[in-house]
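Exercise: predict the fold of this chain.
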Amino acid sequence: MMSTNVEKSFIARVTCSATRMTYFDQHPDADELKGSGHLLTTAHAYSRLNIMAPYYENGINPVHIVAYFRCYDDYYNIQIRSSHYFGNFFSKNDDRILGAFPAAGGDTTSFNLYNSNSELVTLDNLEGSHATVYLRARNAGFINRQLREDVYVYTYGDAPGDPVTFNLEILERNVDYPTSDVPYAQA
């Protein structure tokens, strides 16, 4: 039996390749990233070994990103429900980089979810409370990671780069559109 869009909608805590996601303005190099604070990155730091290393249990952004995945047939709009950039959506800018943006109607980026077998999935296919998926910007490319070498932070978008997975801790299933103006309590 086919599920309705509400039955395929959910709230999840989101990490990227098992690393906490944050925003440029929450990153330790925030002073160097002025004007780009709303762009998504991960809690990585550039080391003297010329590698990017994740911060574990870091204080960069003590609140995880929690998002509402609103389903439309087989694609999702992803709305931020945690405190920072609350109510904004994961969407791409003109440079194809993901960030937190206000709703923009049909210009808000929507996403398809894919499993490790490159199969299109919805919540119907995600059993249990944890899932690992690839995000693909609808009618565009998969979300990859790019290293921004001017300040050594990662950006994420559908430009060429390293493939990444998104880890979802599903907190609620079958969720109608949230109307609360209070950030998600389990952030």
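Check your answer against the key: The chain has one domain: 10-173.
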